[in-house]
Amino acid sequence: MLRPYQRELYDAALHSLAVNKRTLVVAPCGSGKSYIFAELCHACKGKVLILTHRRELLQQHRDLINDARIEMVFTEKNHLDPTMRPDLLILDEAHLSAANTWRKVIDFYDTYTVGFTATPERLDGKPLGDIYADMVEGRSVRWLIDNHFLAPFEYYAPFTVDASDIRHGDDYVIDELEKLMMDRKIYSEAVRSYQRLADGKKALCYCVSIKHAETVAESFREAGYKAVAVSSHTPTAEREAIIRQGDWDVLCNCNIVSEGISLPDVEVCILLRPTMSTALHIQQSQRCMRYKPGKTAIVLDLVGNYTRHGLPDEPIEWSLEHSHTKHKAHNADGSFSIRVCPECFQTFRTAPVCPYCGAEYPVKGRELKAMEDVELKRIAEEEAKAAEKARKQLRMEVGRANSVEDLRRIAQQRGYNPGWVWKMAQVKKLRG
Length: 432
Fold this sequence. Notes:
Layout: H1 4-19, E1 22-26, H2 33-43, E2 48-51, H3 55-67, E3 73-75, E4 88-92, H4 100-109, E5 112-117, E6 134-137, H5 141-146, E7 153-156, H6 174-181, H7 184-198, E8 203-206, H8 210-222, E9 227-230, H9 236-245, E10 250-253, E11 268-271, H10 278-285, E12 297-301, H11 305-309, E13 338-340, E14 347-349, H12 365-400, H13 404-414, H14 418-428
Parallel strand pairs: 1-5, 1-6, 2-3, 2-4, 4-5, 7-12, 8-10, 8-11, 9-10, 11-12
Antiparallel strand pairs: 13-14
Helix pairs in contact: 1-2, 13-14
């Protein structure tokens, strides 16, 4: 049975489908999108085709549909057969809808289509309006936390890797990121941060590459933790068994556990993959927030992704027509919009003291310079306005001059030479 907030979104999706052939359903990670599309499958009296991009997701959805006693045909590879045209096409993790393989299926069957995602734009930030006609959105992350449907979180940034010199387009160049993140000092500090802030809690660690994931896992094992790395190189059956059995403290992965997979026992996300993609950041940082009574999720951001994308509960205005508005790293006065406590390392929206431990936050470095730059700009703008106002008053005084004698008086007051009087008399057509 759907929860009330899920029923709201389900009804909105049905209403949209009544007038649109393709609808995108948006709801945060961990809010139960799979239950909503299982209900859609149950309501559909004809054939339903579900597209998913990973075997782990395929099995997860198969289990859910079977629990609901719905007979369904799942597929990962689609043989385009017009005689098998589904009555309803469902796309899981629909931000991937623009992939050539999926787009081919969508266009070929041209049937009623519903996409489900927490991040309704491509990983490069481009919108999905060329695929979907309408978008319906569920409750926000903050609402779900406040109403105990997602776990509350603590977000720590004990140190930040500087990726400013790494080349990027839509995202950072992976080869350059790997060289940066393979520095032993960085992944050793990641282990120490885990020990200090989340010791022994089940964690997902997001890495840059397969080599990076394997190296970080080894570093955790050297520290005495059960750590394992999974990637596309891990045999499928072995990878599924590792993820499902959960016999690990830290699961290091590269592009495997970023989307859709439900792991409610995971309490910690360790971010070791700098990214310019808000969609990827959300998919990774919120993966530990599935609700369990008494659980507080912990995000260890060791690469400064919060400076690019904000905190997990930051509201985002999604659109099918344009990319979402990027997170602003600075407030209007130049101060950081999000600060990190120097004592407890928790992040928080700008405040004079840490709301968690009460430590005062010293304004220094880049933040101080940004604030000074904003103040200098403000002063320069005020001076420019004052100067323009003064010039305007001077022009008005000349405009009110009704005789050459008035012009001589103005010239004397301002120190102008006699030629100015003659020139202005000619312009104003004054005699005398």
